[in-house]
Write a structure and sequence with these properties.
alpha+beta, 60s Ribosomal Protein L30, Chain: A, Phosphoribosyl-aminoimidazole Synthetase, Chain A, domain 2, 7-stranded mixed beta sheet, globular, disordered C terminus, binds adenosine-5'-diphosphate, binds magnesium ion
Length: 350
Amino acid sequence: MIEQNTSRTELAELGEFGLIEHLTRNIILKNESTITGVGDDAAVIKAGDKHLLISTDLLTEGVHFDLTYTPLKHLGYKAAVVNFSDIAAMNGLPKQITVGISPSNRFSVEALEELYSGIYMACDKYGVDLIGGDTTSSAGNLFIAITVIGEAEFEDITYRNTAKSNDLICVSGDLGGAYMGLLLLEREKQAFIADPNMQPELEGYDYILERQLKPEARIDIVKSLKALGIRPTSMIDISDGLASEIKHICKNSKLGCQIYEEKIPIDITTISMAEEFKMDPTIAALSGGEDYELLFTIKQADYDKIKSLSGISVIGHMTELNEGEYLISRSGTAVELKAQGWDAMKKNED
Ligand code: ADP
Ligand code: MG
């Protein structure tokens, strides 16, 4: 007889990461070909001489996207790209995807064609093949589940748990833009609900809207690092905000970190939108999600090489575990890093 567990624990007690840890804590890998299972941006599987990277991302209507302001083509593009980003985070290249969708009868064939035109556009841009999936009806919300398969040389694969003390912490591009884009779209949606005759005020904010609606995976950085002969000592993609992601690297590598507020790259459009919302742009960078930039650590010896790569900011360094995780503010005060990133199940996550 299957034993029934009669006690009830609320999901909010564990949060997203706690839940994953809880559900996967007893896994014992059975196959020699499974090199790495749960716990990184993608799993690593040995297939002959090759190493494959596999990751799944599920997007849920009402949680991850709002169809009142998300064009279906953009949604398809983003659903594919966020998966490619997890392969970039392992220092690999995406090669194939499978796509699962659950449309209700609210969607027309033409609407789903739009969604797929975005998926195909991303596949063309990143050189990825769509090789299968699953289709089922839904009583309500649309779900889009994409699994990506990537490839990497074994020695190139980068994990979250391999940073070393004193390594430099680097980030690509700029942060906080996708979140400010989301706040702007939400503001205009509310204004439209209040007065349907109102035209949305989106002019001058193309950059942050694009960051939210049409992100890119930084495969270009993976290629540039390889060309420069830099192998990151650890890497993760920024889907949940800088603070949450650096804390993953710290926790998995059993280290601490110091990052410098003044070094965090933030675009001018993000700053001016944050000002409009009376919000500190640093908070948007630390806790706003969905920038899909790469956060990685390198050996100090690689500093000169990384300086030659444009669009990379060195924002701090790794420290010993007992030194904690700190943000050094512009005024020089050390503030303990708290992750309040995107977490569908819990408001504050450490
Ligand atoms: P990311 O933000 O990079 O997509 P997640 O935080 O979603 O990563 O997942 C962290 C790790 O947990 C990954 O290795 C992922 O494969 C694994 N994981 C997430 N959800 C589940 C689940 N429901 N069952 C098993 N493993 C999961
Ligand atoms: Mg990731």
